[in-house]
Amino acid sequence: MPGFEIDAPGTSQLLMGNEAIARGALEAGIGFASAYPGTPSSEIMGSLAPVAKKMGFYAEWSVNEAVAIEAAAGASFAGVRAITSMKQNGRSVVADFVSTIVLTGLGKGGMVMVVCDDPQAHSSGNEDDTRTMAKWFDIPMLEPGNYQEAKDMTKYLFDLSEQLDSICLLRSVTRVSHSRGNVKLGELPRRKYKAYFEEAHDTRNPKQSKFVQNPPPPLHAAQHRRLVKAQAIFESSPFNWYRGPEKADLLIITAGSGWLHTQEVVKKLKLENRVGILKLGTLWPMPEKLVRQHLNKSSKILFVEEVDPFIERNVMELVASSPDIPRPTFYGKRSGHLNEYGELTPDIIIKAITGILGIPYQGRDADYAKKAEELAKNLVPKRSLALCPGCPHRATLWAVKTALKMDGRNGVTTGDAGCYSMGTGATGFFQVREGHCMGASCGIATGLGRLGQYDFNQPVVALCGDSSFFHANIPAFINGIWNKSNYTLLILDNNATSMTGFQPHPGTGMVAMEEATQVIKPEDLCRAVGARVEICDPFDLKQTTDALLGMMADNKGGKVLISRRECQLVKARKEKAKYKMHVDTEKCVGESCGCDRLCTRLFRCPGLTWDKKAGKSKIDTVLCAGCGVCADICPQGAIIKEEA
To answer: What is the pTM of this model?
Structure first.
């Protein structure tokens, strides 16, 4: 991601929101950065790690978000400015530690936690709103409304963190993190740290460290005093502003991505003289005096925000507890004018504004809209989620499907978060029966595997990836071994954190700063706690199927099958495809083959297509990765693989 780290103060660069956040960290003079990859946050560390050596700071991909934030806190305790980043799922992972560090405070080094939420759950299992965490734990929080603010707020929060002796939170969302805009750069400091932990034990003058959250009540009081101090600072923050008439027909209070949509809509509707916009950048604690000053600008208030009615509830709470404030009519998620879930769009906001003000509006001619919709149905091909051509997970899931069918006891496959989570759908043959969060596959399987006393006889297979094994499955796996749970752990090891951009993990032999390190093998960890371990190549369908059948037949606990084959996208960068594939049209029986086109309808590799005119399958040579697995599943032997 060239450009974000250049030393050219005063110039403008076109930056992604996440790159702007990374730039803000550089301008703040960070000495430590840590993260676990998770879309839409991955590019923050993805930007910082490649320049860490050149810029003189340390960066790491941690095994999970809890370790990442704890490591960053360690740096802060020793006086080094630290940043840690994650997506909203990771925010839940760190909650235990956050609930205590807000009590103890930091060392001399500021600490910023960045959480990128994913409204609409584009690449997530949920769309949780992180802002409630800030209120829950009393953490000062800002949210950028554009790319310049993404940089400036990050830099500002380090100063605020040190001023308040508190961790500070920056909340972003997908449409800010993953879109681009011009950002004016500031200076890059050349800060030299001398790390020292001042709370080290002195035997001549022993005392309790300030970093021990005990006793909680006095520390809790101090935490609230920090928040009061932050609120006073936020009242005059440059990240809050108002645009519009002194008296408006409608006042919109907004933040973050809502600000981008709102200014576009008001301009499009030509309502600049009728609608006022109060944009907030400091969301918690809310600058109450500032909000009070603007509430009398209109008797109608619309809240535009993603995802939860966070600002809406806080303003209502303020009005309800202040008898001197006028009682306007509130519109937003509670009134049904805006969606309570999912992303906001300009069209949604247009509908809300025109409905409240009684303005007729038609975006486009009705006939044109109807024709466009009909054309889209006919011209745009329907595409479902699919694993990549040559993905080893497709072969593994096919083996799972075959093994469970051969076993005949209606086995259960528990899932995790990763590329293989698509095993819940057609691309994974609907083999994954549940999918919640990282670590849950082993955890749920542990429970199912202890139900033998209730006549539970279904084999249980827990799926997880190599990165998610290190992230959160190890404790649950050890729990299963300890409690003699009867299930099989199937680790889909593709030597990368593929779903978020191929970041390294403890099993890859590489760290974030591109230095070689010791390879930590999942099989060594599993064997160390007494598990039976086998390793297979998923492209060898018979070997994988037989190994899985054998483990399901073994009623003893502690069974691990590692299906190991490098991610095809990573492999393709280093070497050519092993096979050239083609279809023998004489042998292909088309729709008469196994369950109506077994290869294209069931196996569903994107490299396999259907020739409607010929009524035969064919290979898309552009997409085909040359793995050769489709030749093994074709019952007619019509798919041919030749050495490339």
So the answer is: 0.84
